[in-house]
Write a structure and sequence with these properties.
The protein is an alpha/beta fold. It has 12 helices and 15 strands. It folds into 2 domains: 231 residues, Rossmann fold, CATH 3.40.50.300; 66 residues, Alpha-Beta Plaits, CATH 3.30.70. It is 34% helix and 26% strand. The strands form 3 sheets. A 7-stranded mixed sheet has the order 6-7-8-3-9-10-15, with helices on both faces. A hairpin with a 2-residue loop joins strand 12 and strand 13. It binds adenosine-5'-triphosphate. The site of adenosine-5'-triphosphate (ATP) has 11 residues, from strand 2 and helix 1. Adenosine-5'-triphosphate (ATP) binds next to strand 2 and helix 1. It is found in: Cell membrane. This is ABC transporter ATP-binding protein.
Length: 322
């Protein structure tokens, strides 16, 4: 899949009937992306960066001002109607199938994607088992909790064997168990079916395990694009040390007082970023002596995609490596 020079602007609006005026925004600003077949590709970026606007153009739901979108040899700007045959899209909004039961919603989706009745039924029960949806099978989507409904919508996105899955925040509102089943299902589609997946997510830490490459979007522009490993090189070798104190940190201990200077403090938690050698000394200091009694928990971690994401903070020019 290739995107070239994609631009989409939302026009300015004058204030009207209690609605505030909005300025014109260039939500996608000359975006170029090339996603390989069979790749799980992540789109990261802060709120309002343009991620949803970008994927809605890729799915034929929103017409770009200019630019090209090519999916499996099809020009989706010229033929947006072809998108529904090539890809399954899970948007942020709730589904149009809200009145149906979970099993009927998934089965209907499979039928709409061309499965015969028997195949659709089989595929529905397989996906429901895979995602742990069995106990909700006969409940209407609109009577489920937010996380449960989201999981059912993921189920619907997975049937019909579309070669491209476009998933916008698939795990929103889900508990850890449900999230895990979604990541596993995505990984399985890639491994067993060679499915290409475009994933928008804020759940950077969890998604990292399934992502082959990542683009970071900021104010409509791609400011970085690389493998998770390549992006992590941006933050260097620094490791992250998290210290959680039971109550007040023992500042009378000189080593603790020294760490306080560099710590980012959130409630009882101190977060420090430092070279591995310094981190080892710091861990020895807080776990060896009197400080240990005051410590509730600690973790030492190598850089994650989340660290990259935070470190980029809009200063990522020149990091794009396709
Ligand atoms: N229908 C619309 N009309 C006008 N402006 C819009 C519209 N939809 C989005 N925008 C603006 O376009 C920009 C990009 O929005 P978009 O929803 O694509 O961001 P996002 O990266 O998906 O954010 P989030 O992480 O919060 O979902 C934002 O500045 C947003 O305010």
């Amino acid at each position: 899949m290739a995107v070239t020079g994609l631009v989409k602007s939302y026009p300015a609006r004058r204030a009207r009937r209690g609605r505030a005026a909005t300025e014109a925004v260039r939500a996608t600003d000359r975006v170029d992306l090339s996603i390989r077949a069979g790749e799980v590709f992540g789109l990261l970026g802060p709120n309002g960066a343009g991620k949803s606007t970008l994927v809605r153009q890729l799915t034929g739901l929103l017409r770009p001002d200019t630019g090209r979108i090519e999916v499996l040899g099809h020009d989706l700007v010229r033929h947006p109607d072809r998108a529904s045959r090539l890809l399954a899209y899970l948007g942020q909004e709730s589904s149009a199938l809200d009145e149906l039961t979970v099993s009927l919603a998934i089965e209907t989706t499979a039928r709409l994607r061309g499965r015969d009745a028997e195949h659709a039924r089989k595929e529905t029960s397989a996906v429901m088992a895979e995602l742990g949806l069995g106990s909700f099978a006969d409940r209407a989507l609109r009577r489920l909790s937010g996380g449960e409904r989201r999981l059912a919508c993921v189920g619907a996105a997975l049937v019909g064997d579309r070669p491209l899955l476009v998933l916008d925040e698939p795990t929103t509102g889900m508990d850890p168990l449900a999230r895990r089943s979604v990541w596993a299902a995505i990984d399985r589609r890639r491994r067993e079916h060679g499915t290409t997946v475009l994933l928008v997510t804020h759940n950077v830490l969890e998604a990292e395990a399934v992502l082959d490459r990542v683009a970071v979007l900021d104010r409509g522009r791609v400011i970085a694009c690389d493998t998770p490993g390549g992006l992590k090189a941006v933050v260097g070798d620094d490791v992250r040390l998290d210290l959680v104190w039971r109550s007040e940190p023992p500042l009378n201990i000189p080593e603790v007082a020294a760490l306080r200077e560099h710590a980012q403090r959130t409630g009882r938690r101190w977060t420090l970023r430092m070279p591995p050698e310094e981190a080892r000394t710091a861990v020895a200091a807080v776990t060896g002596g009197a400080a240990f009694a005051a410590l509730d928990d600690f973790t030492l971690a190598t850089p994650s995609l989340e660290d990259v994401y935070l470190a980029l903070g809009g200063r990522g020019e020149g990091l794009v490596r396709m």
